[in-house]
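Let's practice the habit of predicting before peeking. Look at the sequence and jot down your guess about where helices and strands might fall. Then scroll down.
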Amino acid sequence: MCMMLHDDPDLLQDIFNAVGERILRYYELAVNYDIVGGVMSNDDWGFNTQTFLSVEDMRKYVYPWHKKIVETAHKAGKPVVLHSCGYFGDVMDDVIDVLKYNGKHSYEDIIMPVEEAYEQWGSRIAILGGIDVDFMIRSTPTEIQKRCRAMLERVGDRGGYALGTGNSVPEYIPQENYFAMIDVVRN
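Done guessing? Here is the structure:
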């Protein structure tokens, strides 16, 4: 893909269009079901320190399709969450102001802890999850509960946050650690 940016940008645009059309069609169909209360768009955009593509190239190739996905969901009266791993600092304002996502999921402590993301953007977009998967694996249940409680106390009555992991919940997270997180909201 990176080589195509320079060697054959027309082919790259054709590929983005072909994939984008298929993904958009999926969302056009999904939002018509009453049982679908909202949608999550999954598209990992970066590494630990930068986006896969430059912000300029993101705006050219990636954003047009995400904008259409968000518009499709909003037209159906449904919120849209972007799940995207990797560095997002240079594109978060676009995620909020240009693409108009309602929420953002996937946070990693080595990139930006969820606590910092919430303080920076939580008044503008819902911050979902963020209790880092590595933290969930390596910490004790007591440490997990302490961090989760602290996060919920930080949010207080400001809202715009949902407790959860920083990414998916892999099977190798110890069950007692997962339940320690869940128990914070049950108790």
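How did you do? The mean pLDDT is 95.
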